[in-house]
Amino acid sequence: METATGSRLLGEVVEMSLEDVLRNIRSSLPPDPNCSSIRDQVQHQPQILPNKLTYVSELDDITAVHFSATKSAGLGISGRHLPLLYRLISNLITPPHLYAILVIDIEGRFDATRLTCSPYHLQHAYIYRPARSDSDNTRALVAEAEGILLYGSVTKASAGREWWGTIVVGGVGAGDITTGWKGWLRVDRENVRGFAPGISAEEALDQKRQRQDIVDAAGWVATSQWGGFVFREADEKVLGVEANPEQPLDVGERDESARD
Fold first, then answer.
1. Which of 12, 54, 107, 166, CA to CA, is 20 to 30 A from 73?
2. Distances from the Cα of 3 to the Cα of 6, 8, 20, 126, angstroms
3. Rounded distance, CA 129 to CA 110, Å?
4. Are 100 and 158 in contact (CB under 8 A)?
5. Per the record, which residues fall in region Disordered (predicted)?
6. What Rg value do the Cα atoms of the chain yield, rounded?
7. Measured between alpha carbons, how far is 190 from 219 in angstroms, rounded to an integer?
8. What's the predicted TM-score (pTM) here?
9. CA-CA distances (angstroms) from residue 129 to 7, 40, 56, 75?
10. Cα separation of 111 and 113, whole Å?
């Protein structure tokens, strides 16, 4: 009898590997909602998009390297940032790109007459100067200004243009381009060689006009740990074709008083 019982038990034994055992156990357990929630969070986690193109090849190459190294999008400019902004905006709103763009001027120092293009293209650069200069509340300012432009009537002239994005002058934490002391790309005046050693005061005075011309013709240097380049505030070809000495005062500037 004992022999028969043992034979029956052995016949009921199913040979399985450890992997098969674990698979059967997992399939028999009810699904864990916490695990699926975590998977959903990972799948739906927002991706960090790379920087928008400025169509200045040297700058786009550097921002691409910066994004690859830091996974942080956005161009932050420190130092003497305005000449680079004038160059970028002039390039973006003119052919062949023909974008419309928003500039939030928290500092109050952005001079739209420095943009080197015709009044026709200037009307597509919207400068918003908030009544309150609150650099700590930049995100709210950006959302407010973008809301005015998207849903208001001030941008009807740009209905046929693609929006490039937002530049924040004097604020951090929002905008496609921001300026401030935390910027990872620094802009300085291009270095100009000084007078030769041993030159007399009289010789220096004789060369004063020539030296001033050299200084005025000097460009700007953008530097970062990811690379750098030299640029001029205005493209000579753009100046020759687009510049208009009689630019109107109304160059697309918008402030809070215009909403009343």
1. 107
2. 5, 9, 30, 95
3. 9
4. yes
5. 241-260
6. 31
7. 5
8. 0.65
9. 91, 41, 26, 21
10. 5
Q: Where are the alpha helices (DSSP H) in 99-200?
A: 119-122, 138-151
The letter for the amino acid at 97 is H
| Structure tokens belonging to residue 206 | 């004789």
pLDDT tens series, the chain, 260 aa: 556 655 665 555 555 555 554 555 555 555 555 544 434 443 444 445 567 899 999 999 999 999 999 998 889 999 999 999 999 999 999 999 999 999 999 889 999 999 999 999 999 999 988 876 665 677 777 887 777 777 777 778 888 899 899 999 987 767 899 998 889 999 998 876 665 666 666 766 666 676 666 666 678 999 999 999 999 876 543 333 333 333 333 334 444 433 34
Ordered alpha helix ranges (H), the chain: 2-12, 18-28, 33-43, 57-70, 82-93, 119-122, 138-151, 201-206, 208-217, 236-242
- Alpha-carbon span 109 to 170, nearest angstrom: 9
User: What residue has token string 């043992």?
Assistant: 6
Q: 86 near 115, Cβ under 8 Å? A: yes
- CA nearest neighbour of 107 among 169, 166, 167: 169
d(CA 115, CA 112): 6
Structure-token match 């699904």, residue found: 31
Q: Cα separation of 256 and 182, whole Å? A: 27
